[in-house]
Design goal:
With 170 residues, this protein is α+β, with helices and mostly antiparallel strands. Helices cover 18% and strands 48% of the residues. The protein contains three helices and nine strands. The longest helix is centred in the first third of the chain and has 17 residues. The model has no long low-confidence stretch (mean pLDDT 85).
Length: 170
């Protein structure tokens, strides 16, 4: 009988020593990266074509939007690393009948700003087009050369940024 009590006591001690409280471990804070895309477009560019942006949204998801004003901005967050951020721009030129001016000032500038929850940051400005005084009959040629171009970057969990102009926008 003493042996059974002793073995039971030993088993109970072994069970208590193997368990731990879940609250003892501090939870790890999840690392995130937040990017802001800003696009400044001339009114002449909007008059000459329809502008479509496909951008990397939360956790790399692709979203396409029509841009209808001279200022467009989006802020997106990712917690998957390496995180992908970027945009692809498409210009759908309007017919010659809709191009009523003799000359167009076509400009479009993209600004990226990134910050991670680990205080890493990155920013970049890309001039997509800056063509002044483009003749009406040359507008379509100028815009067709740029349509479907993309720019982007990847960021590691430690905040290291590298260019990534080959991101997929399907």
């Amino acid at each position: 009988m003493k042996r059974i009590v002793f073995i039971s006591a030993m088993l109970m001690m072994a069970l208590f020593s193997l368990t731990s409280c879940g609250g003892d471990d501090e939870p790890k804070e999840k690392t995130t990266a937040t990017a802001t895309y800003s696009l400044a477009i001339s009114q002449d560019l909007l008059d000459a074509c329809n502008v479509f942006i496909t951008y990397k949204a939360e956790n790399g998801r692709n979203v396409m939007e029509s841009v209808t004003s001279t200022w467009w901005t989006k802020t997106v967050t990712s917690d998957r690393f390496p995180a992908e951020f970027g945009v692809m721009y498409k210009f759908s030129t309007k017919s010659d009948a809709e191009l009523v001016k003799e000359k167009y000032d076509l400009s479009c500038e993209l600004t990226f700003a990134l910050v991670t929850s680990k205080s890493a940051s990155y920013s970049n400005k890309v001039t997509i087009i800056n063509s002044k005084g483009v003749a009406r009959d040359k507008v379509v040629d100028v815009l067709n050369k740029l349509s479907g171009t993309s720019t982007g970057f990847k960021v590691t969990v430690n905040g290291i940024v590298s260019e990534a102009n080959n991101l997929r926008y399907e």
